[in-house]
Amino acid sequence: MAKLSELKKYIDYTFSTGVYTGDDYKTFQNKYINYLRSICKENGWIFVSALRNHYCFSAFIKNDNGNFIYLSISDVRFFQNEWFNHVLIRTAKNEKDYTGGRNQYYPLPVLQFAIHQLLKGA
User: Fold this and answer.
1) pLDDT digits (tens, 9 = 90+) for 10-52
2) What's this model's pTM, rounded to 2 decimal places?
3) Which domain covers residue 12, as residue numbers?
4) How many domains does the chain have?
5) 1, 63, 62, 8: which is closest to 33 by C-alpha?
6) What is the tens place of the pLDDT at every residue in 67-83?
């Protein structure tokens, strides 16, 4: 299981950059997505999918009632630590809804609670 402490090691980290995604970011992204999968498992949510981009990613999570959450982190090269301090989440109609509800931003340590609140109220 991925832990928050593994991700905290990347605070203030300067990621590689270039035409191809660096191995350092790929490792970080895998750890981050695994962390999201672990909080989904702990809460009985379903980790639907992750869209892996060049140096950012987005994901969809849903609960048993069919309520969806869209989650996204900014490009880690240009927005240092936003992946930790400023994670975008919002409600979504389904796993293809990239416009969804109102944007909300939370720090990673409280993301689990914020997702819970949004899924409950969706």
Assistant:
1) 999 999 998 999 999 999 999 999 999 999 999 999 999 999 9
2) 0.94
3) 4-121
4) 1
5) 1
6) 999 999 999 999 999 99
